[in-house]
Design a protein that fits this description.
This protein is an all-alpha fold. The chain is about 70% helix and about 5% strand. The protein has a two-stranded antiparallel ribbon. The longest helix is centred in the N-terminal third of the chain and has 23 residues.
Length: about 230
């Protein structure tokens, strides 16, 4: 279906513009149209959330009719599921690729920086992931994604625990704690955006690594000990 080209649209949509007039039309391929709709929906879901967005507004912003959106995705749930799945895979791939060889502390730094990089460079995607979704059962949840990321750093803790005489079966717990700490700090950092990314990562790893360096072999809650005394 033809679409009226915006005079100030995204750069990847304005290539090849003859500049003759605002009435110039361009016909997209099915693949291009699908990507355009995903880009529009991604920005709208980040701005308004799933409940606040509508097929009507997606179609309006994309300058197409509603049936075009239905043809490609079947409805709002369908396009939302694709957007969320793509963001989850993008973040997971980023973290996995960042975990190159190195000292265990460097691996923790790489994981923290990868997550903060995603938050910084894919702000809309991160806002979508941290929202609750009515189709979470189909697309996964942010907590599920954090579980996947935690599994990538779990072996770091496992190796360190074994080398230091700690129970390696506790590695999953500590990896969840680390990833959760970075993710929650990332949500806060997204709003304030200071200090700089590397400084935030350095402080997070400082807390995690130096805490790991001085772990108690049999930690107890001191308040519980006082209660039982």
């Amino acid at each position: 279906m033809a679409v009226r080209r915006r005079r100030h649209g995204r750069s990847d949509r304005s290539s090849g513009n003859s500049g003759s007039s605002g009435s110039t039309r361009v016909r997209m391929t099915g693949k291009e149209r699908r990507q355009q709709l995903l880009d529009v929906a991604r920005a709208l879901f980040a701005e308004k959330g799933f409940d606040g967005a509508s097929i009507e507004e997606i179609a309006h912003r994309a300058e197409v009719s509603k049936p075009v959106v239905y043809e490609h995705f079947g409805g709002k749930e369908g396009i939302y599921a694709v957007v969320v799945d793509r963001e989850m895979q993008s973040l997971l791939d980023l973290v996995v690729s960042a975990l190159s060889a190195g000292h265990p502390r460097e691996l923790l730094e790489q994981a923290a920086c990868a997550l903060l990089d995603y938050i910084d460079n894919s702000t809309d995607g991160f806002r979508i992931l941290v929202r609750d979704s009515p189709v979470a059962s189909a697309t996964g949840t942010f907590s599920g994604l954090l579980n996947d990321i935690a599994s990538q750093v779990e072996h770091i803790f496992g190796l360190q625990f074994s080398a230091r005489g700690y129970d390696p079966e506790l590695a999953p717990l500590y990896s969840q704690a680390l990833v959760g700490m970075v993710a929650l700090t990332g949500q806060w950092w997204l709003e304030v955006h200071r200090p700089a990314r590397d400084e935030v990562a350095a402080h997070l790893v400082n807390l995690a690594w130096n805490g790991l360096s001085h772990l108690e072999h049999d930690p107890r809650l001191r308040s519980r000990d006082h209660d039982s005394a």
